[in-house]
Structure formats: C-alpha cells, structure tokens
C-alpha cells in the first residue's frame, strides 16, 4: 500500500491483491465509480456503484467498521473521487491502483456479460 498525505488526511493506494484480501475478509466497502453502463457490463461482485458523475461525499457510509476503497477502470477516476472525499472531510480514504483493468489483468474473479445471450455470469480468470 502506498500512502500520501493530503492536507490533514491520508490517501491510500491499494494493490489489487490487497483489495481482494480485505474484500474477501469483509474488511472494506468497495465502491465502483465508473458509469452505470460500465458496471452493468462487468464489475466486481459485491461492489457498490456510485458513479463519479453523481458522487456525493455526504452519502458515503461511515468508516467506523470498514474502510472505503474506490475503484474505476484505470485508477484515474477513483483517485479523483478519493481526493474529493478527503476534501469533504474523510480522514483516510483508499483507491485501487490500476482499477478494474488491473483486477482483470491479475486474473481476479468478476461478473461479466455473456455475449451470446446478454446475461451476467461469473468469470473466474
């Protein structure tokens, strides 16, 4: 994990392996900030959707029990959202380095779309 001071807060950048381990252990809330269309086509099972275009920091859950980790397609949007959350007063915020592309590239499981029938299906790379 990389950390960066952002004012009085800390921005954390997690690897896909760190995210998967924490997610599998129910230690984090994983929030996808991509568009609804991107999410519907493929996403990490169990992640929540809060598109960057509609991001409202006040609507985020508290971090008393679980850390919030944002992700997008490449890591650029999730970093912007993480910084916006910090500006809104959150003390420690994380995002996933490389985004969903890195998740897929590492062979992590996700929900994809079966191109033959348009139905969602689990992909266990």
From TrEMBL:
Q: Which GO terms describe its molecular function?
A: thiosulfate-cyanide sulfurtransferase activity
| This protein's UniProt keywords | Transferase
**Domain Rhodanese positions:** 24-112
Against Pfam families, the record matches this protein to: Rhodanese
- This protein's species is Allosediminivita pacifica
Membrane-crossing ranges are none
The record's listing under Gene3D superfamilies reads: Rhodanese-like domain
Protein name as it appears in the record: Rhodanese-related sulfurtransferase
């Amino acid at each position: 994990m990389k950390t960066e001071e952002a004012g009085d807060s800390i921005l954390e950048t997690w690897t896909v392996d760190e995210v998967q381990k924490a997610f599998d252990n129910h230690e984090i809330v994983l929030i996808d900030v991509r568009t609804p269309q991107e999410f519907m086509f493929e996403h990490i099972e169990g992640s929540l959707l809060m598109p960057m275009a509609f991001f409202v920091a006040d609507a985020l859950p508290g971090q008393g029990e679980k850390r919030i980790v944002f992700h997008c397609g490449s890591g650029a949007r999730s970093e912007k959202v993480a910084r916006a959350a910090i500006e809104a007063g959150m003390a420690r915020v994380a995002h996933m380095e490389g985004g969903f592309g890195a998740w897929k590239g590492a062979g992590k499981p996700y929900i994809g779309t079966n191109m033959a029938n348009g139905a969602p299906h689990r992909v266990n790379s």
